[in-house]
Structure formats: C-alpha cells, structure tokens
Amino acid sequence: MRVLAKHSVLSTALIGALAATSGVASADVSIYGRAHISVDHLDNGVDSANNLSSNSSRIGFRASTDVLDNLTAMAQIEQQVNFDTNGTSFATRDTFAGVEGDFGMIRAGKFDTPLKRVRSAVDLFGDQVGDARNMVRSRTGAPGASSLDERYPNSLHYQSPRFGPVELNLQYATNTTGSSADLEDDEDGLSASAIFRQDDLYLVLAHETKGEDVGDRSATRLGAYYDLAALRLTGFYQAVSEDGDGFEDNDAFGAGARYRIGKNDLKAQYYAFSSDADDADASMIAVGVDHHISSDLRFYAVYGQTSNDDNAAFVPYREARSAGTPRVAGEDASALSIGMRYDF
To answer: What distance in Å separates the CA atoms of residue 109 and residue 157, rounded to the nearest whole number?
Structure first.
C-alpha cells in the first residue's frame, strides 16, 4: 500500500517566504509518514509474552523542483520512528537525491534494492505479523544470518521510462556496509529488475549479487499478482546461491490470496523455505483481516505461525517490528496481533 503524501501548510509557507526574500524558485515540499502500532501475543515455542510494537513507523520529507520542461530535481529524507519507545534514528530509511525526466530517473543515496521491491509488491502482510521477510530474508532464521531484502547505502540507481508495459531498474552500491571504501575489500552490490504491468497482471523478475567480503552470494526473485475483481492472487519464488561463508544454497516460494468485501480485506498466505543444509527447512502461514476506516486509517487482526526443522529458527514476527522474543531452533512459533495503521 502506498503512503499518502500531503503538503504541510507550515512548511510551504516557510519555503515560500524564504524564496520570496532570496529570489529563487521555491521547491514543492511535503511531509508524510506512517504510524503503525500493534498489541501482540508472541510465542517462540518455549515461552510467550505480550508486547506493544511499532511496525516500520516512519516520517519523511520530500522536495522537488521543475528546473526545465523535462527535468525535475528531487530529494527525500526518511527515517524510522518507534512509537512504543519514542526512539528514532535520522535518515535510516530511503534517503536520496536525483533527477527525473523523459529519460527515466537517476538518483543516489540509500534505498531499497530492486530485489527487495519484488517481495514488497506481492507480500499481503507487509509490516505485520506474517510478513514474508520472516521466511525469505534470513538464510536460516538464526540471529546474524540476514542478507536479503536490504536497503543498500552508497547506491546509484537508474529507473527507465515505461516501454509499453515494461520498466527496467538497475542499482549499484559501491560499498554495501555503509563504511568508507576499502580498496582491498570487495563490498559492492548490484541489483536489477524487469517489471511487466498490463491490465490486472503484474510480473517482476530481479537478480542481485553481493561482493566476496559481504556475503559473496547471488539471488534471483520472481514475483507476480493477478486481480480478479475483488480477489488478488499472489505468487513468489526465490533462489539463493551461497559461496564461501558457511551457508548453504536455499530457495523459497510463497502464495497468497486477498478478497475484498466492502471495507474489509480477508487475506491468507503461505511461505516455505528449503535449504541444502541438513534439517533447516521451515514454513509459515498467516491469516488475517484488515478493516479500512478510510484510505488513511485501518485496523487489523492477524495470526501467524511458523514450523521449523531442528536447525531452523524462523518466527512469524521478527521483521519490520520493534518488539520480539528470542528465537529457538527446532520450535514452532506463533503470534496473534491486533493493530492500527495511520498514513498521513
């Protein structure tokens, strides 16, 4: 779901006043955000707890200026806000500057890779319990094993204009760790995608590689959804090749359905993870309902559960959340979540 951006009257007035005194054209400036909180009961298979969680809540600032007939300068600063603890870090989310026009878009900064955006396009439980990242981002479900669904820093990104139903994306990160460049280290990353949109069909294929000193892996993702009136069907496939860091090759697949009845979205999805490592497979199921008060405000209830082999430690509530529990290998985990999301 998109975040709705609205102009701040105060920001516009201030920018206008500054522009009037400086004699330069004012930028189109907006402030936007999302407040997403939930109350959850989490069970890791050994212990359980109740939690209040802030789930990818954020605030951001956007600016753009038409500098020529076919050229727009733009910038964005976005950061996470944890409503449960009043915590925040500046510019932790998609933050960039660039230009766009008939040629497409070119930008530089820190932002989601084309590979990451495959999952977000088809995930019916994004930022909720049951988020597909709980299965497809981590290579075993164990702490410290994440290497997919990343937001690369030090990045250059080109997005093509639409060629009929097709759009192309290419992103290169000179250093994916966020540190200064080290000429002796191979820490770069490359991610690309091709997107096909036509009528009610959406298809996307992406491939990503990462340098030898930051995982030395490659991944391919295929995502799709198809709308049949009030019904959306989704599909996902991922193949990951690991080399030299102690992790085994793995793949994952998922499927889901969402049915809209009035202001209610009834939805369910299933994801499975399969690894070449011994006893490291897992699966997750999530079911829930979103009730839309308006386009800006919704309430929801979700139940999610993961089943783990002896050497897997996946939970349905790790990703995009400020609250969680320790993960236990070989134990099945579950969560019940009641939440509110307000976009502004």
So the answer is: 9
Q: Using an 8 Å Cβ cutoff, are 46 and 61 in contact?
A: no
Q: Which residue has the higher pLDDT, 122 or 247?
A: 122
Q: For 278-335, what is each residue's pLDDT tens digit?
A: 999 999 999 999 999 999 999 999 999 999 999 999 999 999 988 888 899 999 999 9
Give the residue from 253, 171, 250 showing the smallest Cα distance to 209.
Answer: 171
Alpha-carbon separation of residue 90 from 56, 61, 99 (angstroms): 14, 11, 23
Instruction: Flag whether pLDDT at 12 surpasses 80.
Output: no
| CA–CA distance, 332 with 317 (Å, rounded to integer) | 12
Contact 246, 264 (CB under 8 A): no
Amino acid at 31: I
- Architecture of the domain delimited by 5-343: Beta Barrel (2.40)
The tokens for 280 are 């490291």
Residue with tokens 């069907």: 233
Beta bridge partners of 260: 265
Fill in the amino acid letter for 197: R
- How far is Cα of residue 156 from the mean position of the Cα atoms in its chain? 18
Burial class (CB in 10 A: 0-12, 13-18, 19+), 301: middle
Locate the domains of the chain by residue range.
5-343
Residue at token pair 């049915």? 259
Q: Encode pLDDT of 226-274 as tens digits.
A: 999 999 999 999 999 977 566 789 999 999 999 999 999 999 999 999 9
What would the mean pLDDT of 198-214 be, rounded to a whole number? 91
Mean local confidence (pLDDT), 140-161: 82
What are residue 329's phi and psi, to 5 degrees? -65, 140
DSSP string for 265-312: EEEEEEEEEEESSTT--EEEEEEEEEEESSSSEEEEEEEEEEEE-TT-
